[in-house]
Amino acid sequence: METIKYASEIVKELHRSVERIVEEEAETLADIILQSNKVFVTGAGRSGLMGRAFAMRLMHTGINAYVVGETVTPGIGKDDVLIIGTGSGETRSLIPMAQKAKGLGASVVAVTIAPESAIGSLADALVKLPGSPKDQASGGHTTIQPMASLFEQTLLVFYDAVILRIMDKTGLDSDRMYGRHANLE
After folding, report:
1. What does the pLDDT look like over 115-136, one tens digit per residue?
2. Residues 108, 86: contact at Cβ < 8 Å?
3. Would residue 161 count as lying in a domain?
4. Angle, CA 60 vertex, CA 93 and CA 150 arms, to 5°
5. 169 CB neighbour count, 10 Å cutoff
6. Which residue of the set 2, 9, 24, 152 is catalytic?
7. Does residue 73 sit within a domain?
8. 55: in domain
9. Domain range for residue 106?
10. Residue 22 domain-assigned?
């Protein structure tokens, strides 16, 4: 298969994946974000990179958003939310973060393939995303892509869709968001 044909198949997979997201779960996430004082985003590996992109866009909307582990990230507390993007829901470094956030009175949202996972069971709200080759074993969504690429891509598209929903709910547009864009680049 040629490179462009691979890209075309990836787009088809993303379309099928996104169609399987439950709208009510997505809407709940947007509402939780808008009701929170501060939003903390985390994930490991490529899922963490998607979370970083999400936190950046949240900041552009005027939301107090932070990436866990950065030197300028404040403490989490009551009226805050921790959003964890995790395919397996079992990433060992993320489980204690969810526990600590809950212990400090914050809400936890898991965006995951596995709602029944350790992180899923700790979460106050869940968004189930399809998108892993592991889904194939249970008769779920298949992919030509390696490892968890489809989950990670779906995660980024989903996060961007949540941003659009927040923009819609708050009457925000891209022109106003540019005022918060980095200007020391």
Report:
1. 999 999 999 999 999 865 444 4
2. no
3. yes
4. 50
5. 13
6. 152
7. yes
8. yes
9. 30-177
10. no
Q: What is the CA radius of gyration of the chain?
A: 16
pTM for this model (two decimals): 0.92
**Spatial separation of the C-alpha atoms in residues 184 and 9, rounded to whole Å:** 38
The label of the residue with tokens 């779920």 reads 140
Catalytic site includes residue 27? no
Please name the residue ranges forming H helices in the chain: 3-18, 23-35, 45-60, 95-103, 118-122, 134-137, 149-170, 174-177
Instruction: Tell me which amino acid residue 43 is.
Output: G
| 41 strand-pairing partners | 67, 83
70: tokens are 């950065």
Location of structure tokens 């060992």: 92
CATH number of the domain that 54 lies in? 3.40.50.10490
Q: What's the structural domain count of the chain?
A: 1
* Structure-token pair, residue 137: 């074993």
Q: What is the largest CA-CA distance in the chain?
A: 52
User: What value does the mean pLDDT take over residues 92-117?
Assistant: 97
- Nearest-5° angle of CA 130, CA 131, CA 136? 95
